[in-house]
Amino acid sequence: MGRPPVLPKKKKDGFWLEVRNKGAKTGTILIRDSYVAMMQAAKQYETTKDVIILGEHKNGKKVEEKATKTKKAKEA
Q: How confident is the model at residue 76 (pLDDT cuts 50, 70, 90)?
């Protein structure tokens, strides 16, 4: 047994989703390289399992998408 790591592990880049049995509290996290691949995996598992989409991660952090983008009106 070695000593415990000092730094926490960084999250892998990609699109994350969690697949768990219906009614379970924990599941398995799947990581896909593209949004399309993540949605295909979600569609594949949704008939028999609960699928939770966790979103995109880059550089060890979750990417926050802005729901509303405001554009400045150009003055004439």
A: very low
